[in-house]
Amino acid sequence: MATFLSTILLPVAVGAVAIVLLLGLVNMMRGGSPNRSQTLMRWRVLLQFVAIVITMLAVWALGR
């Protein structure tokens, strides 16, 4: 389980955070909708939380 978390699930979660962050930056640079920026920021925060939880689970599983 630790291997799955640290080698597959964690990079996917971090990649999702990076994609949403880049989408938000592109939206701001183009002068896009503020509502879309807020939505992307909320998604980024949620995905960061998920990535942190996965990281902590992987650390816990590796320590067992």
Keywords:
64 residues; mainly alpha; 2 helices; elongated; Hypoxia_induced_domain
Would you kindly provide a written description of the structure presented here, covering whatever features stand out?
The protein is mostly helical and 64 residues long. It has one domain. It is 91% helix and 0% strand. Helix 1 packs antiparallel against helix 2. The termini are close together. The mean pLDDT is 94.
Quick rundown:
With 64 residues, the protein is mainly alpha-helical. Helices cover 91% and strands 0% of the residues. The mean pLDDT is 94.
Q: Using the CA coordinates, give the radius of gyration.
A: 15 Å
Low-confidence stretches: none
Order of helices and strands: HH
How many domains would you count in the coordinates? 1
Shape: elongated
Largest sheet, in brief, is: none
Report the sheet-strand fraction: under 5%
Compute the number of strand runs. Answer: 0
Mean pLDDT: 94
Please report the distance between the alpha carbons of the first and last residues. Answer: 11 Å
Transmembrane segments: 6-25, 45-63
Keywords: Membrane, Transmembrane, Transmembrane helix, Ubiquinone
Protein name: NADH:ubiquinone oxidoreductase subunit 6 (Subunit J)
Pfam families: HIG_1_N
